[in-house]
Amino acid sequence: MAHSQQREALAQDMDRLQKQLRGLCEGRLSPADEKRLRVLDLACGECHEAEMLQKVMRQMAAGEGREHELSVDFIGTDIRDREIERAAERCGKGEDGVDYRFMVKDGQKLTQDADLAEGFDVVFVRHQNYYLGGKEWHAIFERSLEKLAPEGKLIITSYFDHEHDLAKDAIQKVGGELIDEIANQEARSLATKGKFVDKRLAMFRRRD
Ligand SMILES: C[S@@+](CC[C@H](N)C(=O)[O-])C[C@H]1O[C@@H](n2cnc3c(N)ncnc32)[C@H](O)[C@@H]1O
């Protein structure tokens, strides 16, 4: 695929993901601090979704047209440093009430991490990779739930139907409660059979 076509495909993926997130989050986000939304994007890779995600989460939490009343702390983490460097270069520090920070972290080991104190309103995991290591992803999901504020939400997306179902089971086993899920009917198909960009989405809360 030529560069321009790839850019166009990525932009369309973002539009579709945005639409799905609106459907999933409408009326369901209530920030712990009414002036500040905290978003953690875990295993974010290059984090192509950062700008779109902070914008949609802000609108959904504040109400459309009132976004400016809420600032956003957006933290993206991944175990791979090159991806984190690229994300940081692309997003910069942020502006207009948005503060971006990108950090190299092993998502399995966040329990004692002072950079990532608990209390996130949203933890987002796009294209979780359960197929590549169920044990590792159990730990990542467990840490994700621990990082939530009491009313916080964990949102995942998946490439494959079956991988999504495995991840859903794992999250429920480590203390998550499924709130809702969406099948993205417009998801773009990829070369591998059954693989689609953001094919399925699900939202969880922590079961206390
Ligand atoms: C399928 S990629 C998805 C990347 C990105 N979220 C996206 O949708 O393009 C899965 C990501 O999980 C990250 N990952 C795998 N194990 C991890 C771990 N233990 N801690 C943090 N990130 C991890 C990988 O580096 C990779 O970026």
The largest pleated sheet is described as: 7 strands, mixed
| Count, helices | 5
Provide the structure class: alpha/beta
The total strand number stands at 7
Radius of gyration: 16 Å
Shape: globular
Q: What number is the mean pLDDT? A: 95
**CA distance, first residue to last residue:** 47 Å
Full CATH superfamily name: Vaccinia Virus protein VP39
Describe the structure.
By secondary structure, this protein is of the alpha/beta class. The protein has one domain (3-206): Vaccinia Virus protein VP39 (Rossmann fold, 3-Layer(aba) Sandwich). It is built from five helices and seven strands. It has helices at 3-25, 50-62, 81-91, 134-146, 161-173; strands at 36-42, 71-78, 98-104, 120-125, 148-158, 176-183, 200-206. It has a seven-stranded mixed β-sheet with strand order 3-2-1-4-5-7-6, with helices on both faces. α1 packs parallel to α2. The longest helix has 23 residues, at 3-25. It starts with a helix and ends with a strand. 42% of the residues are buried.
